[in-house]
Amino acid sequence: MALVASSTTRLWTLVAKEFWRKTRRRLRAGPVYRWRYSGRTPERVLIAPPDLRLADPQIALEIYYGRYPLSGHLVETGGTSPFQLDVPNRGWQKSLHGFRWLRHMRATGTELAAANARALVTDWIAMHGNQISGIAWEPGTTAKRVIAWLQHSSVVLQGAEFPFYRAFLKSLAVQIRYLRSVAREMPDGEARLRARIALAFAALSLPAPASALRSATRNLAEELEHQILPDGGHISRKPMAVLELLADLLPLRQTYANQAEAPPAALIGAIDRMLPALRFFRHQDGSLARFNGMGATIHDRIATILRHDDTVGAPLLHAPHSGYERLSMSGVTVIADTGLPPPVDVSNAAHAGCLAFELSSGRQHFIVNAGIDTYGAPEFRPLARATAAHSTATINDTSSARFSHSLRVSDLLGSPLIGGPQHVPCKRLDQKGMQGFVARHDGYAQQFGFLHERELKLGTNGNVLAGRDRFLRPGNAAIRNNGRDFVTVRFHVHPDISLLQDDHDRLTLAAAQGDSWVFTCSEVVPEVEESIYFAGLSGPRRSRQIVLAFKASEIAEVHWQLTRTIIAGYPENN
């Protein structure tokens, strides 16, 4: 009861905070405040910042013919302006109003693409520029649009006549003033940091007094110091947040240099920490580990960002502030979640995956988490976030963290994490020729009275991953058979891996090429069950999972092992 009451109190506190924020935002969009967003129109764009996101001229051609493939959803406009359509897909709408697709038109480099970009910007200004409301003016979307308009101002203004040039700069100035007004009151997290990045871009790219740049730089530095952890991770614990923010921060650093302005030390420090953190989360095939909202990886995006990483040597093995561990030896990579849940304000993408791990060998993934279908149906998200979708243990088929799925508050909050582990101690066990750690979490302590402890050791030149899962009562009290001690330890197998079982209950995980791994357990006969891999590039895929099922009152500790049987001679990870 105390657990439910605590979760309920936390949820309604969040509701009250977000309701107050939205009320104030509506006031700022009303006629009483709107006059504050008028003012002097900048005369020109001084510099167009670079854009590191990948561009595809083919998408520009699709847009020209009225087909908009945005946010994993294709909409055909039939000659109508996309800004006139009422498309029910919220992700598509946010992508449309964010204007990041302008980069595809810039990549085309033709006058036709520039004219199309200009026509679409004209439509947006006519239909949404004078009415501060809806998805188009959500602060996070506004920040993306301000950055995109500045980065691709050269293509938008190419061949433009003076009335459009003036209208573009006037609308940009209004958006910047609005964003400056609401930024401080935005919820904690990635969108608020991006708003500060957008305002810094604006102060550098448009004629502005020195005081505006100093203020934007100071606010940016404060937000970076708050949101970027000492080990380079983001407070949300999302690997994708590191990638997305670097795609904005690296061009911002370059823009400071191009304008002969000194970037804040916090910006330099954040980038210097985040680049190694991105490498920390990366498997050897270039994909990011599927933790806390991570779906399919577009490898070229990561490669583009990491070209700016001057760090030499192997990735770090320990990210204590982000709450992750890495084992890496002879082409084998193990990445594990050993951290507390993120703060509730930034937990909308958080998963209940404490002590879950992934194993890759060379460029092939063997043990994975289910990940998420980034652009898929929202009803599958709760399944992907559950503990059972991760390569870790569940007790009584219950997740180790709790989420809000209340329909009454989802419009305000989404589905934040409102309860989970409160203590996750972790200790490295590295020795010569072996890397390992042992960690424990109390996510099941209040509900079922159990602690889960996991130990992983990678040794024998990377050929053996030895694991131990232990279940104990707080204070080492005796475990009783009370019908609430049913344990399931899951190992989700990547769908590209064949899974074979022999007469001795050994399971062989075989890749089409390269290594094979044999799974054994000394206390429990492993079983094979169906599973779903949500993070496929083309959407969810059927997969399988290895399951160890037992009662903690009968078996309090299981030892399992994954042994590499074919060695393809992969180099060390980098």
From TrEMBL:
Residues 313-561 form the Heparinase II/III-like C-terminal domain. Pfam families: Hepar_II_III_C. Signal peptide: none annotated. It comes from the Bacteria. One of its GO terms (cellular component) is periplasmic space. GO terms for molecular function: lyase activity. It is found in: Periplasm. Keywords: Lyase, Periplasm, Signal. This is Heparinase II/III family protein. The lineage of its organism: Bacteria, Pseudomonadati, Pseudomonadota, Alphaproteobacteria, Hyphomicrobiales.
